Structure formats: structure tokens, C-alpha cells
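ingest -> validate -> predict -> emit
validate: passed (alphabet ok, no gaps, 399 aa)
predict: started
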Amino acid sequence: MAWAIPLFLFFMGIEYWVARKKGWKYFTFSNSITNLNVGIAERLLDTFTVGIFYFVYDYLHRHFGVFDIRSGVLLWIALLICTDFIWYWYHRLAHEINILWGAHVVHHQSEDFNYTVSARITVFQAFARMMFWSVLPVIGFPPAMIISVQLVHGLYPFFIHTRTIGKLGILEYILVTPSHHRVHHASNEKYLDRNYGDVLIIWDKIFGTFAAEDEEPEYGLTKPLNSHSFLWQHFHFLLEIVYAYRRAEGWKQKWKVVFGKPDHINPGIRPVLEERFLFRNSTGAATRRLQHYVLGQTAVIIAVLFFFLLLEEQAPVFIQVCITLVILLTLVNSGAILEQRRWVFYLEYARLLVVFIAVYYCWPHPALLWTAALVQPLILYFKATIEQRYLRLLYGAPA
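emit:
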């Protein structure tokens, strides 16, 4: 999991270099940063969920496994095909059932389409997929085989999130290619609900959901999100479900809100929730200074995540919690800065506080407490001035 990070960043860099050299405007700063932020959160939380998935599969295999499947070349191939088949149906239902779409919608929010979009996977989606793949240990596949195939199966989709690769000849008839997946991410009406496959394209052709790419798609949601907020991206559709459910009359309508198609959610709900929760600012475009600060934060957090995953077993649980909090606070902070919110000052303060607590845990020296005791009153006394100067440095003079 740790070494996948520099590998993916390397290919993102190659794609960016190729696109820039050819003059293709495939990357925008804000979209790329928000894509990476979602991926950082998923990779971080995977640290805690992969182990949970293994033990769930192990329990199901020991207590409910129908067959006792042993490792073998043909059985590894069979498991890969089964995994891909189940993925097709999970993916298709994730577009057709609201509660599953609430977990999957984050992956489709970007209006860019490049390798950074492959990072837009949430931990909610990971849990949803686990429920579908839980049939594999019941069939009799050992959990170690399942997790291994899932890791390999999860690598392939990264490479189909690109506009720099055209059609691939005979492979178009067998594998899911970048051309196929561009169709899947399109918001064009003729491309909607097509090409759900992950590795093999045959499932879409068998079940009638295949469409070939015959023109350059428009990417993103049919109703663009227009927000870089980390929290809003993750929870906006779940909030729409809750809002619609509370106002639905009768159990039939409530059932449709939760388990019906996304079309059953009134599109007028989102503007109401945006007015209540999003608090858009009428600020100007992001300055170079702001972009450099956000990019610096992202680079540091990616480095922290890499070493955290690499050395996780050597870190005490308390330090793991602190690192997790710092990373999550930074992700929320980056999105809020891109939205030019004024309350990011408090996120900065919270992040520094968590870092101080972690340092004191590792080195409980009285000097640290004395320093905090002296600095904290000064921060509180000059809070208004410090906050004003911080925001001016970040956003420039207020409009």
C-alpha cells in the first residue's frame, strides 16, 4: 500500500508531462488537488479497513464456506473472473441504487479525466464492495487469495483513467480500455449508465450496457458539483437522501428514496442544502500564493502518508490516531482554502494542537508544557490580529 503511492504519482507525472508537451489541457489545479485529497483519505483509512475485510472473509470462509478451495493456477484465474463479475454488478447497482450511489458518486464528480481521478475512491465505497465480495469466501475461496486478487484487480483501473491513450485495437474487444472508461465517466446523455466493467468488457456486452466512444465526452456529474470542499464532496448526496426521505410521504416513497434510482431524488434539493451547508464565498480567483500553499500541504501530507503506511506497525496506537487526525484536518483544510473559507484559521490551529500533543507524547519534557503555557495566552490575546494577518497572507486583501 505504501509503495503504490510513489508508483501512482510517477504515472500521474508522466501523464501530466505528456499532456503539457502536446498542449492538451487535461489537468486543472483545483480538480487535481481535490482528486488527490480524496485518494489520500481512502488510502489512509484503508490501513484500518483492509484488516477488517480480511477477518470478515475469514469468518465467512470458516463458518459458511461451501467448498474448500485450494490455491492453483486455474483457481486463481477463476477467482479473478469471479471478482470482476461481482465488481460489474456492484458497479452497476452503485449507479442504480441511491444508497450505493451516495458512496460511489464521489468518483464521478471531477470534470477532468486523468490519472488523478482514479484516486477518487471513498472508504464508504470500499465497505460497499466488501459486502458484494463477501460471497467469495462463502463459495470457498480462502481470504488470503481474495485479498491478493483484490489488490491486483484494484491496480488495473488506475491505468484506464486517462485521455492520453487512444483506442487499443483488438484489446477493445476483451479488456476495459481507457476509451471504454471515458464513456463511463461521461455526462453526455447517450453515454449515461454504460461500461461498468473493471477489467473485462465482456460483462457489459453480455448484459447490454456497452457503448463505444464515438466522440469526446463531457466529464463529471450531469449537475456539476461546483465545490472543492472535501466534506461536501463526500456527504452531499447522502444529505440529499436524508432530506428527501424526511419529506417523502408513505413507506413506498421512502423506500424509493433510499433504494430507488438517483432520478427519484428531486434535483431541487441540492440548492436548498447548498444554501444551508455550503456557504459559498464571493471571492476572486485563487492566487499563486494560495495554490503554492495548498500544493505544499498536499506534498507534505502525501509524504507523511507514505511513511505512515511504511512504518505503521512500529508506531504506537496513539501516534497513529494523531497522524490520522492531522492528515484528515489537512484534507478538509485544503478544500476549504480552495473554497476561500474564512474559518480555515481554526483548522490550522487544531492541526498545530494535534502535532503538539503527539510531540509531547513522544517527548514528555516539562519545557514543552512551559512553552505552551507561555504561548497559548499570547495566541488568545492577539487572536484577532493573527487571524486577520493569516487570512490576508493567504487570500490577499478582502474584497
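The chain has a mean pLDDT of 90.
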